[in-house]
Model the fold of this input.
Amino acid sequence: MTLYKFTYSIIITTLVLFGLQIPTHWLYLIFLAIGLVGIIFQHSARLFLYLVIAYTLFIVFYAPLITLSATLVPQFQPKVISVLIITLALSLLGRMFLYSDRAESVERNWLKLILLVALIAIYYQINKVLVYGSIALFLAVAAISYGTLNIKPFSIIYDYKKRHIAIALMIFVLLPLLNLIQLDNSKKTIGFIKYHSVWAKEDIPYTIDDWTLKSNYSYSEFSKILSNKYKILNINSEKDLNEVLPQCDAVIIMTPTVPFNVSEKKNIKKFLSLNGKVIVIGDHTDLFGHGRVINDLIQYTGILINYDTHFESDSWYGLVSFRNTLLGKIRPLTASSISVKKPVYVMVWSHNWISEAANYNAPNFFGDLTWTADDKLGDFPMAITAKVGGGHLTLWTDSTMFSNFALYQPRIIQTIDHLINNGAFLSSITYYYSFLIIILFALLLFAYKYRGYLLLIIFFMSSVASGLYLVYFTETDGYYNPQSQINIFCEENIIREAPSSKDPELYSLSNLYSNIARFDLQPKWISEGPSRCSANQTCIWLTTYENYSNWKGKKPTHIIIIDDHEDISRLGYKRTFANAESTFLGLGEGSNRQLWITSDSKHSIVLPKTLIFASDGVLDDYTIGNWWATIEVSLYRKEMIKRFISWIRTKEEINLFQYPKLGVVSGKKKAIIIQSGKEDKELKNVDFNILEFEKNKYVYLGGEMWGFSTKKSKTIL
Done:
């Protein structure tokens, strides 16, 4: 029977190491299939009951165990300690549920060898000196699991009968019907506490009047989309807090930097106790002290936001998924992690991400943003909902996603909808389950006469608490203004920005996409291919020439061809250089930018049923910079983005930008050139050809470089 034990140990190992990464609806179908087979085969029946109970115990107690491990043994990686404890517990449970005979004598020598390998692997994993640490952890977990299944004193809990499996299956099959019931209350009135933050401001609108990073990092669009769907009650003082809270279904607190006083905390705690929902949004590294303010407010709940930067170890583009949704993966931007001291509903887990402590001597408190020996590596909660009194607390750890420049990225608005409206049911179930399961297991060990009934009760409770059957649906309806909405179809990496220290992806248009909302338009990413586009909608497809030429379906109203495929010339384009002259005084290299234009110097063409724009070398991120660049300093960027918007709104063609002559000429004036990252340069005997555009004065420096002219200090920036 060794084969069964090996099989069970691998199943337990997979559950512990990868169970959080498998979508819940897929796990439901896998467990259900095992249960159906269990009607015929006893081993499968045992495995079905065991997996449902073991998975639920795992997801309920894993997060508190990580926090406990980090507290008790901070010198070790908390994931390793937690995983080993969880493995031992689930394997002991498996020994009781799955297999009852003693270890055969033939196995004992092999068992000793396997356990020795496990101990060596654990040692290297904990001390972080093994290159392939994940392999070591896998071997350690598998060995511990197999070894535990061979422990003599334990025997099977209950000899399952077919009728018990039938009842368990009936329960499991019927649970998805709960999706037909509105388990969480939909919110209608939301309070927005604004007077406690000097960070999350919305006083700078996202318009063409201000193209700076200040408007990028404003939250004016966040407030706009909320007000489209909900009745928003702004809370701008303690008096407002006292008067408005009783009228709200939920309240939002975003990156608070001003501590709450005793009276304010008491009112918020009372609101929670009376079935209210508090949504707290944090960010990385305790920037501006917001993490300490949040923890001072919610620490009595056993939940804390960590003062760290949380990111994937291998890539800046790390993705995470919400459990119990069909939402797909989202990309956090500047997240932190969460510590919990009690079972809560973890909505989002990271997997093998780095938790890097804040560096208070560095700008924005960021550390190296790379793996170092003093960082933590593992699985961490990133979003939770907890039952607190009669209400619920939701904590999300990335406010940057909701700032103006990132808000319309794929699935961000669905994330907002999910945080506001969902999570209460499973958080309540998790809360009660964590207490009742301990009592029932104690009874199971001693109440021999009623073990069959107790087992079914435990299975039923675990099935409900697992949430495997539940799918929270998220929506964007109501958040968008129908008159402002434009539908976007493209691969996500085309509109996903690169960090400021890295080059953008080839042909990406993240900066252009993020600036669409400045013109009172709301871009809504739909899917990769053009679909669901009605005649009265503006639909834009961003794609390569090959995809465009091979597409057999209905084409949308606007198509952006993003690459430099040579066959684009078949549409009437030709390849040319934009502007090859050197920069003034050698400030930069001469431009060798190539782009597509028609014979009459246009970047766009008009076809019978659609408009086409060839964006490569015109408005891609390599040309105008990614969204970390300051648009304000470039007249080219501002003008070409405006022409693009006119192409969307009025079908006006996009003309080639004509650069002016050099703006620095001989004269009698003095000036200073201030260039980011370089020493200032003093100029003598010069004059300037000033170009005025939207209240700003520009000087063209050649090589596609621009400068601001300020009269007071006679400075070019």
About this structure: The first strand starts at residue 189 and ends at 193.
